[in-house]
Design goal:
With 120 residues, the chain is mainly α. It has one domain. The protein contains 6 helices and 2 strands. Strands 1-2 form a two-stranded antiparallel sheet. The longest helix is centred in the N-terminal third of the chain and has 14 residues. The radius of gyration is 14 Å and the shape is globular. The model has no long low-confidence stretch (mean pLDDT 95).
Length: 120
């Protein structure tokens, strides 16, 4: 599935990569002037779910290899990581949010993403 990136996606992606600064699976550090080059943004519940597309609890910085691995080869391991990261109750709440329909509002998501980025 090819999902178009808009300004909110771009700012949110930078926030996640700057927040984590390294691959949360293997520990590989980001490079470059901002320390984020080589890191990708991985959505546990895919970007197609608008309700969690910009949810920081749903998204992790991963290197390319780990993103491929958790994204398609070993989803169960990613699930176990998310439960360990968030706690079981918060993971359950994230799952409910992921399955709740919300109206798309990219202008508001861009404002929130910019505020998150500024908070670092």
């Amino acid at each position: 599935m090819n999902i178009k990136l808009d300004p909110a996606d771009i700012v949110f992606s930078e926030y996640i990569r700057r927040r984590d600064r390294h691959c949360l699976r293997c520990g590989k550090a980001g490079t470059g002037s901002k320390g984020i080059t080589g890191l990708q943004v991985s959505h546990y519940f895919g970007r197609g779910k608008e309700s969690t597309r910009f949810d920081p609890e749903n998204v992790d910085a991963l290197c390319f290899g780990c993103h491929q691995y958790w994204g398609s080869t070993d989803r169960e391991s990613y699930r176990e990581f998310k439960i360990s990261q968030l706690g079981y109750l918060s993971f359950q709440k994230l799952m409910i949010r992921a399955n709740t329909l919300v109206k798309k509002d990219r202008k508001m998501e861009l404002i929130k993403a910019k505020l998150l980025l500024e908070s670092l």
